[in-house]
Write a structure and sequence with these properties.
Elements lengths: L1 H5 L5 E6 L17 H15 L4 E7 L21 H15 L3 E5 L3 H4 L1 H17 L3 E6 L2 H13 L22 E4 L4 H10 L9 H4 L2 H8 L1 E5 L19
């Protein structure tokens, strides 16, 4: 987002829920403060760091982690009509005359129900609005595997997410790789802005600069009809208008 903004593109962030069902330590929130209030503030703070021009919330309730009873609660994003939610997003896409929409991959990165629903809703919204390019943001599962193997070879016992956790997509399915290595300071700052989700002691913020660059210096996407292999390095290449 910061890279796109710095290159002169208008960046709009649309968020499906307000993250009501997250967990924070006792005493983290102020007296009478609700978690959703803090998360809305954090979202706006991160968006400012990343050069976002507009932030919109679609108004659905956090569905919680996969398999929880909250998935099926009335008003949850997971239970929302895809067409109804897609029309809410399509309205924004039309207002913005959007050239590109980024969504999650069909596994939602790591299986989160709201992320999977973003994939479904986003694809449909692009169809409704006629948005020409849809990129599925993903995680390079092979990069994580290689990093773990290298860490184990050095005698390190912990690296990133648990080895048995399904996360991301194999490189064979990824079609775009965007170098964002120049924006690591902005990325760290935006992460820190989400203090209710990412603590200073988290894996993400505890990484040394070199390791952080290796983990987050490239962003990975899938665009249907592209490939096989990585064929794009710039999401905006060849766009006109």
């Amino acid at each position: 987002m910061r890279k796109a903004a710095d290159e002169g593109h208008r960046v709009v962030l649309v968020v499906a829920t307000r993250g009501e069902l997250g967990e924070v330590p006792d005493g983290f929130l102020g007296e009478g403060e609700q978690l959703w209030q803090r998360r809305v503030e954090e979202t706006h703070a991160a968006a400012e760091i990343l050069g976002v021009s507009r932030v919109e919330f679609l108004g659905y309730h956090d569905s919680g982690m996969m398999g929880e009873p909250s998935n099926d609660a009335e008003g949850s994003f997971w239970t929302a009509s895809v067409d109804e939610a897609a029309e809410r997003l399509a309205e924004i896409l039309r207002e913005e005359s959007a050239d590109i929409l980024t969504i999650y991959d069909d596994f939602g990165g790591y299986g989160h129900p709201d992320h999977i629903q973003v994939h479904r809703v986003g694809k449909r919204a692009a169809e409704l609005a006629g948005t020409p390019r849809v990129y599925q943001a993903t995680i390079n599962a092979d990069l994580i595997r290689r990093g773990r193997e290298e860490a184990e070879a050095r005698g390190e016992t912990s690296f990133g997410p648990p080895a048995d956790m399904k996360i991301g997509k194999p490189e064979s399915e990824i079609t775009a790789a965007v170098d964002v290595s120049a924006y690591m300071a902005a990325k760290r700052a935006a992460m820190r802005a989400h203090a209710s989700q990412i603590s200073e002691e988290s894996f993400f913020l505890a990484l040394p600069d070199e390791a952080f660059l290796g983990a987050f210096g490239v962003e990975w996407f899938i665009r249907e009809g592209q490939g096989p292999g990585i064929t794009e390095k710039d999401l905006f290449a060849d766009l006109t208008g």
